[in-house]
Specification:
The structure is a single chain. The protein is mostly helical and about 250 residues long. Helix content is about 55%, strand content about 0%. The chain has two domains: about 140 residues, no CATH class; about 100 residues, no CATH class.
Amino acid sequence: MMTATATRTFSIPRPSEAEFRRLHNSRHGEIAQALDMDDDDFTVFKRQVREKMYASLDPSKKFDEQDPSAWRRFVQWAYETMPSLISKYEDAWPVELYVKISLSKRIAHERFRFRKAVAKYKQTMTIRSSSSAQGEAEMSPTDLPPPYDEIDRVTDSETPGAHMHPDAAPENIEKFLRSCDFDLGHLTSTFVTRRAGLFNLGRLELLASWPAALRRDHLERHFGTMLDDVEIEVLNKRFVEMSHVQI
């Protein structure tokens, strides 16, 4: 658990782990009561913490995955911004509680949005398949990225270009992969396949536009068997950089 190291006096001790978990799933009023705040003060507190969280922490990661040094700076910010309020609590635990709640809700929301989009896509494909059953002009399953719950099964024994997408631009993809902090150029033949669906800059830019948590989860599912956790993070970081260029 990440906590502030400075020694401070307080009047409201940190709750037990069981009580902390209960508060994590409690309603606004219950949490405010546990913090001994009125509704208005708690609303202001939440807004300040939430705004700073998006500016200082990585909203695509869970609390335990945050950079410890960034978290220490965040807690210090809380003491400096809300001194009379935060000094009442041991280890500024309301800040940790609300950040955990906010991060969990954000990640859950992004996953829900993606599952909803996939369900809509599958429904659309079912309708199109039914309507095209009378002819031979069915839509190719490669027209959209592969399903969220599948894992890329391309192996090193396959010929690199054997399943290359007809719209593939391998030179551009290789340049992108080699521009990562680690040279990931060896993934070029996998990216440009029909199954991977990341065969040209347009597809890369599409993935770069996704929320960071959703994109990272997608990369883990499709390339987790080929890359370690650090390489996945490096690849996701490169997509973040690409999204900033688009803006």
